Amino acid sequence: MEHGPVKIWVIAERSKDGALRRVSKELAAKAASFGDVTVLEVTGERVSGTAAAAALAARATGGAPDLILAGATPAGRDVAARLAATLQRAYLSECTDLAIAGTAIEATRAMYAGKLRARVRVALPAVASVRPNAFPLGEDAADPQVEAVAAAETPGLTFVRFEPTASGGGRVSLSEARVIVSGGRGLKGPEAWTAVEALADALGAALGASRAVTDAGWRPNEEQVGQTGKTVTPDLYIALGISGAIQHLAGMTSSKVIVAVNKDPDADIFKVADYGVVGDVFEFLPAFTDAVKKAKAGA
Amino acid sequence: MRFLVCLKQVPDSTTRVKVAPDGRSIVTDGLTWSISPYDEYAIELALEHKDTAADTVVSVISVGGPRTKDALRQALAMGCDDATLVTGDGADALGPLGIARALASAVEDLRPDLVLCGKQASDDDQGFVGQALAEALGWPHVSQITKLVAAPRGMEIFKEVEGGHEVWAASAGAVLTVQKSEKEPRYPSLPGIMKAKKKEIPERPVAGVADPVTVEIVKLEPPPPRGGGRVFKDGDTQAHAVELAKLLRDEAKVL
């Protein structure tokens, strides 16, 4: 590696409303403290991970950066992995902390489905995806300048159609939500989600679920939090009627504040909770939703 | 249709993993080993296709030491047709780019139509090998797969995205990284287990496969302990709800 400031790319993503994703802004701000940052965005309709990586690799032929960062969203992880393979570089996924150490990077990341935490080191050049909410972002942070990189079609791959999930849309994405309201088997059936959604609306939260709930078909699979679902790192995670199986805990224990509500005082979820209520979740929900509205209004 | 499912043997998800005295690896004595959960979903997706189209061949492959044969045999017992082990000195130490190279050379010989991988292994949690294998083959890949549907003009590939599924079609070879199957991965049947015991598992040498990068684990440790939180046990649940909202705003400052 040449001396001088570390050259960094941040691969940015936009949410459905066209706004730059918060994680992209977090990374751009953090990367600026490491070295020279270029924020890139792959543009095009229904761009596959393969095509996005190819477009970025083509852009890198003019001068590849020392470090490439993407948000650890499903799309971000996908393009980062393919790009690292194209460039034959080390790739670290789902980092929760990252620092430059001379000509290497040191990162913290979960291993063994969140059961252990690893401090790892790789020599630059490298690629990393970083979990949302790993780095702070000032409330008044302006959007960074973003350079568009147009994607071409992927040879051998055709987009056929989009099939929306019945209950999908309208809400913040689970993997980078600041607040998540998650429901488990203790909610007894899909009809309970009317009350869960009311709370999520009051909090501006994304909806999550335990595996029992998605397996039973009460909620779509994409809402599953845990080992075979999504790993989440919100500021606030509210677990309603979730017992706390080890696979579920693996997906949410890095949340900043965990609230658990469960009838069973011995439920494992209480072992990781910052605040807990042992009681009837159906009694709790409307009262809490009301109290949240009042608390947010300053009462 | 020929599927090749790449699997990894990992500590079973219900098992406790302990850090070894060196602080950089885990204690492997007494561990239960299994097929990584996402790889099981990949196997299930391929076997579901075989359930409906009898001429389907589902092969499995893994890179690892001798113990890895147990995982391959498990896949055979689930109903896969044949298994290959890429093995030899250094097979267990190979990183994702090296594993992808070893698998790519096997794919060139085995000539599957589609390669399926779990979206990540539940030990290193990287999510790298599938994309790296596609790159090594010069194939496209599609991630987050939850469903495969045989259609007149080829396989429809369902990719989970925010708010629904994108449906993609591959005209030739592709690597698919699997998020989940709709049904739970099937258990091996007793006849399946008996048949799997008798099957030869051919080996391919890993020798000569290089890994261009090294990721050094500096320290491995349990996550910081949590809990010791404030739990409201007795009394009025509704009053606790009101109190909790105030604490979240004024103490935790998350509202």
Strand content of chain A: 25-35%
Q: Please identify the oligomeric state.
A: heterodimer
Helix content of chain B: 25-40%
Report the uncertain regions of chain A. none
Would you count the extended β strands of chain B for me? 13
In what range is the share of β-strand residues of chain B? 25-35%
Largest sheet of chain B: 9 strands, mixed
Tell me the overall shape of chain B: globular
Structural class of chain A: alpha/beta
Widest sheet, order of strands of chain A: 6-5-4-7-3-1-2-8
The SSE order of chain A reads EHEHEHEEEEEEEHEHEHEEH
The whole-angstrom Rg of chain A is 20 Å
- The end-to-end span of chain B amounts to 53 Å
Number of helices of chain B: 6
Description:
The complex is a heterodimer of chains A (299) and B (255). Chain A is an alpha/beta fold and 299 residues long. In chain A, a hairpin with a 4-residue loop joins strand 5 and strand 6. Chain A is built from 7 helices and 14 strands. Chain A has helices spanning 22-32, 49-60, 74-87, 193-203, 211-215, 246-252, 281-296, and strands at 6-11, 35-43, 67-71, 90-101, 104-111, 116-123, 126-130, 146-150, 157-164, 179-183, 206-209, 236-240, 257-262, 275-278. In chain A, helix 2 (49-60) crosses helix 3 (74-87) and helix 4 runs parallel beside helix 7 (281-296). An 8-stranded mixed sheet of chain A has the order 6-5-4-7-3-1-2-8, sandwiched between helices. Chain B is built from 6 helices and 13 strands. In chain B, the strands form 2 sheets. In chain B, strands 9-8-7-10-6-1-4-5-11 form a 9-stranded mixed sheet, with helices on both faces. In chain B, strand 7 and strand 8 form a beta hairpin. The radius of gyration of chain B is 22 Å and the shape is globular. The relative contact order of chain B is 0.17. The mean pLDDT of chain B is 95. Strand 6 of chain A pairs antiparallel with strand 12 (216-221) of chain B, so a sheet runs across the interface.
